[in-house]
Design a protein that fits this description.
The structure is a single chain. This protein has 255 residues and is α/β, with parallel strands linked by helices. The chain has one domain (7-223): 3-Layer(aba) Sandwich (Rossmann fold), CATH 3.40.50. It has 8 helices and 9 strands. A 7-stranded parallel β-sheet has the order 3-2-1-4-5-6-9, with helices on both faces. Strands 7-8 form a two-stranded parallel sheet. Strand 7 (177-178), helix 5 (182-186) and strand 8 (196-197) form a beta-alpha-beta unit. Helix 1 crosses helix 6 and helix 3 runs parallel beside helix 4. The longest helix is centred in the middle third of the chain and has 25 residues, at 96-120.
């Protein structure tokens, strides 16, 4: 999909990958962006940027986000469902509300937003990009709930690709651990999984993926090769999980 003159929403636009993407997009001719997030003070200013404070875990706020975007821009061509968060923890305490909140943010909101885009764009070509994670393919101890939410998106994507209207493109993003404040929010001393990459590499892959209408975007160049070897040699996955388990146990003792 051509990016020039497009009307875009980015959730999670006030930090990390979302903020980096926003800064790159506004350099493209004619683009207008509704930047949704919680920390409006982090956003750059400009005539093409429309800030919107929003908690995407709430249906009413997502509905308000869509109304705001249509009022400001007259429609929405691209929706980037990037908002999400993780806990780094050893899951031991029952807490229904906490689990419901992370699923509402990481899973329900992106899927709901996709259906809103389908409803809004009956004939116009549009694209929805959802940030999943490499962790959807290789779950990591300490991030069990986060892994579950991203695996949910991955499964949804596989099936939904065969349900999509011809005018709507669905793209799923699978970054590896990215050097942002994301992991500090999971826990101040959270173990950051390996491999890792810079947010600039993820943004570059997103822009390329949108232009090519890619159904799956893998910003880390060796990830698909690694997945092939993991499937071929399953013990490699076990070694990785055992190593991550040791890191989690060490974190638990220190906390």
């Amino acid at each position: 999909m051509e990016l020039k003159n497009k009307r875009i929403i980015i959730t999670g636009a006030t930090s990390g990958i979302g903020l980096g993407l926003l800064k790159s997009l506004v350099e493209i001719k004619g683009i207008r962006v509704v930047a949704a997030g919680r920390k409006m003070e982090n956003l750059p200013t400009g005539e093409s940027i429309f800030p919107f404070k929003c908690d995407v875990s709430e249906q009413a706020e997502v509905d308000n986000l869509f109304r705001f975007a249509v009022e400001k821009m007259g429609g929405i061509d691209i929706f980037v469902a990037n908002a999400g968060y993780a806990y780094y923890e050893k899951l031991e305490t029952p807490d229904w509300e906490r689990m419901e909140k992370i699923y509402a943010t990481n899973v329900f909101s992106p899927i709901y937003s996709l259906t809103k885009m389908i409803e809004l764009n009956k004939t116009n070509e549009c694209l929805v990009l959802i940030t999943a994670s490499a962790i959807a393919k290789v779950p990591v101890p300490g991030y069990s709930l986060y892994s579950a939410t991203k695996a949910s998106l991955d499964g949804f994507n596989t099936a939904m690709q065969y349900e999509m209207p011809s005018n709507v493109h669905l793209s799923m993003l699978y970054p590896v651990a990215t050097y942002t404040e994301f992991f500090e929010r999971a826990d101040q001393k959270a173990v950051v999984p390996w491999p890792r990459q810079q947010p600039e590499a993820v943004v570059k892959a997103i822009l390329k993926g949108i232009k090519q209408n890619k159904k799956r975007i893998y910003p880390f160049p060796c990830f698909r090769i690694a997945m092939y070897f993991i499937q071929l040699l399953p013990f490699m996955r076990t070694i990785y999980l055992k190593y991550s388990q040791k890191q989690l146990n060490k974190w638990k003792k220190a906390s």
